[in-house]
Amino acid sequence: MRVLKQKKKRLFEFLGKLKQSYELIAPVSKDVVRFEKIDDTGDIYLEKNSYFPLKEYFFRKEEVLFKFNGNKIIVPAPEAPARVFFGIRKCDLNAISHQDMVFMNQVNDPYYSSMRKNSFLLGYHCNTAPSPFCFCGSLELVDYSDLMFYDRGDYLLVEIGSEKGKFLAGKFREFFVETNAAITQKEKIIPRADRLDKKDISHLYDHPDWKKGVDICLSCSACTALCPTCYCFEIHDNVGTKNPKEGERKRSWSSCQVQEFTKVAGEHVFRKEREERFKHRIYHQLDYFKQKNGINLCVGCGRCIEACPTRIDFVEIINEMK
Amino acid sequence: MKQKLKQLENPYIPKPYKILDFHRETFDTFTLTVNMKTSHEPGQFVQVSVPGFGEAPISICSDSKDFIELNIREVGNVTRALAKLRKGDKLLVRGPYGKGYPMQHIKGNNIIMIGGGCGVAPLKGAIGYIENHRADFNDVLLYLGYRSPDDIIFKREMERWKKEYHIKVTVDKNAHGKFCYDAKEGFITDALKASSFTNENKVVFICGPPIMMKGAIDILKQKGFHDDQIFISAERLMYCALGICCHCMIRGKFTCIDGPVFRYDEVKDFKND
Ligand SMILES: Cc1cc2nc3c(=O)[nH]c(=O)nc-3n(C[C@H](O)[C@H](O)[C@H](O)COP(=O)(O)OP(=O)(O)OC[C@H]3O[C@@H](n4cnc5c(N)ncnc54)[C@H](O)[C@@H]3O)c2cc1C
Ligand code: SF4
């Protein structure tokens, strides 16, 4: 892949220039680190990864699928904002790749696709794991960005990862210089980020140790909300207060960690026990998705562990399983 | 080109269809005939909706390219709203979805169908298919169980089935000793246990409440049936029917695209999931 070089101080000039043509979204440090629209590039914060993942920019918390008036359906015109996302870590880039598989390959979801279409993904490589919860190195992550920035002290190496990336680098060529440098696979390995033992858990479903995680679970579903890959949703109709025939059909995030997720007629709940629901989440991430798509859904960002009020660490649970 | 266009269609958008007939089956079930022309397999389902109330997956219980029949039980929001519709009204439908009964692959067999309550609806689709391809199949044995004589659905069709097939009907309770299609008091599993068939050249379809399905499978196993001779229908909460909302997932399998009809050996290890 082609690599360019950029002086550190040129990076912020580049981002400032980008901001004139695109909406720029990057991590800022507020109450927590979060991705936000950038007005002043000086606000961009790159020491830690964002507490919240990027998913709500593409797979939104709530999406109006269509409005209706009686049986007449009005589909909203797709929004396709021209956005540049900067400072995305490798885990989150891979999470976007996995959601692309679901919403763009498995089905053609026009809402997701249109949000993705005019977005540019500019990644920022972790020279070392920024959080003790990270375990991306235990998973088989790939390169998945339009431009990937590797911090080398007073300069950056910028790898062009796609046609979109090539377009941006061409449009703003004054901010980059040619180089013979290459980025080796070894240099892409992130140190201190492989704490999950690589293990096939498919035969461990009935292992008694799963209980260890469960006793203290509150079913609060912070883990699924903060997961960059979790994509479960439900669909409901809302009607207006003025005209009961008028309303909208909405999709919204849902969580497999609550009983309602599988509740059917007669109040029957299929995954009634916390243990079953906990295992379902872990198995979807580290077994089921792989059966269908050839790759684990989990990207090792560690958010589900960091965000858990009782700090249930499934990495430890799996590692200790014999 | 045609395929490409189809791919770009918005998969969440239903289309309006006209109701050709409304027929009340029992106090809480009814059958709609809908003017939807589509090819489908028996056992497949559609997503039916009434705007403002939401969507519900409902099995197609007919076998025709010219219309679909839906047998619906009133349990909640959507199904009660559907019950208010009448001939000439419109409803919204998308689909058909899912994997149905593998009719092509089981030609030449005797077919046993075991249905409980509303579970008889998808089986009716398979019976319709057999009626349209009668020469492809041998004997058909129907075991249909209901809670009471008043809960028996498809009374119109039952007269015809009685002439063509071996049919056993049971009701859990027959409080008033009502006459109903020679129905015996007891569970359908009792009728199964009492019957003398073997597993030779047979394929079984089971659809009904989980306890009934489990009971029926146990009896079939005692009679020497193999797991791959048995097909069951799974029912799960479901929103998208496209294999992405994940509510209907059982272990790694999706009821909406890998099912709802599963060969028993594919799912027998799944317990509560
Ligand atoms: C593949 C498939 C085929 C089906 N075929 C038929 C059919 O032919 N005829 C028929 O009457 N019903 C069928 N059902 C069940 C039907 O979809 C539900 O009864 C219906 O969705 C309930 O919707 P509601 O809005 O009326 O009820 P709600 O107001 O949503 O809820 C009422 C009760 O029904 C439960 N429920 C919601 N969704 C389902 C569901 N998918 N399965 C079971 N219970 C549910 C709720 O949890 C609640 O307890 C089928 C379900 C599936 C998954
Ligand atoms: S999981 Fe890996 S890529 Fe993500 S923040 Fe941690 S070290 Fe960086």
Labels describing this entry:
heterodimer; A: 322 residues; alpha+beta; 2 domains; globular; B: alpha/beta; Elongation Factor Tu (Ef-tu), domain 3; Rossmann fold; seven-stranded mixed beta sheet; disordered N terminus; binds flavin-adenine dinucleotide; binds iron/sulfur cluster
SSE map:
The complex is a heterodimer of chains A (322) and B (273).
Chain A (H helix, E strand, L loop, with lengths): L2 E5 H14 L1 E7 L3 E5 L24 E8 L2 E3 L8 E6 L1 H17 L3 H8 L1 E6 L22 E5 L3 E6 L2 H9 L5 E2 L31 H5 L7 H5 L6 E7 L6 E8 L9 E2 L3 E2 L4 H20 L9 H4 L7 H7 L2
Parallel strand pairs in A: 2-6, 6-7, 7-8
Antiparallel strand pairs in A: 1-9, 1-10, 2-3, 4-5, 4-12, 8-9, 11-12, 13-14
Chain B lengths: L1 H7 L6 E12 L2 E6 L10 E6 L3 E6 L8 E6 L3 H7 L6 E8 L12 E7 L3 H13 L7 E7 L8 H10 L1 E6 L12 E2 L2 H7 L7 E6 L2 H13 L7 E4 L15 E2 L2 E2 L6 E3 H4 L6
Parallel strand pairs in B: 7-8, 7-11, 8-9, 9-10, 11-12
Antiparallel strand pairs in B: 1-2, 1-6, 2-5, 3-4, 3-6, 12-15, 13-14
CATH top-level class of the largest domain in chain B: Alpha Beta
Q: Alpha-carbon distance between the termini of chain A?
A: 42 Å
Structural class of chain B: alpha/beta
Q: Rounded to an integer, what's the Rg of chain A over CA atoms? A: 21 Å
Alpha carbon gap, first and last residue of chain B: 40 Å
* SSE pattern of chain A: EHEEEEEHHEEEHEHHEEEEHHH
Sum up the overall morphology of chain A in one term: globular
Structural class of chain A comes to alpha+beta
- Name every ligand kind in the structure: flavin-adenine dinucleotide, iron/sulfur cluster
Q: How helical, in percent, are the residues of chain A?
A: 25-40%
What is the average of the pLDDT values of chain A? 93
Q: Into how many domains do the coordinates of chain A divide?
A: 2
Identify low-pLDDT runs of chain B: 1-7
Total strand segments of chain A: 14
In CATH terms, the superfamily of the largest domain in chain B is: Nucleotide-binding domain of ferredoxin-NADP reductase (FNR) module
Q: Can you summarize the main beta sheet of chain B? A: 7 strands, mixed
- Beta percentage of chain A is 15-25%
Going by CATH, the architecture of the largest domain in chain B would be 3-Layer(aba) Sandwich
Main-sheet strand order of chain A equals 3-2-6-7-8-9-1-10
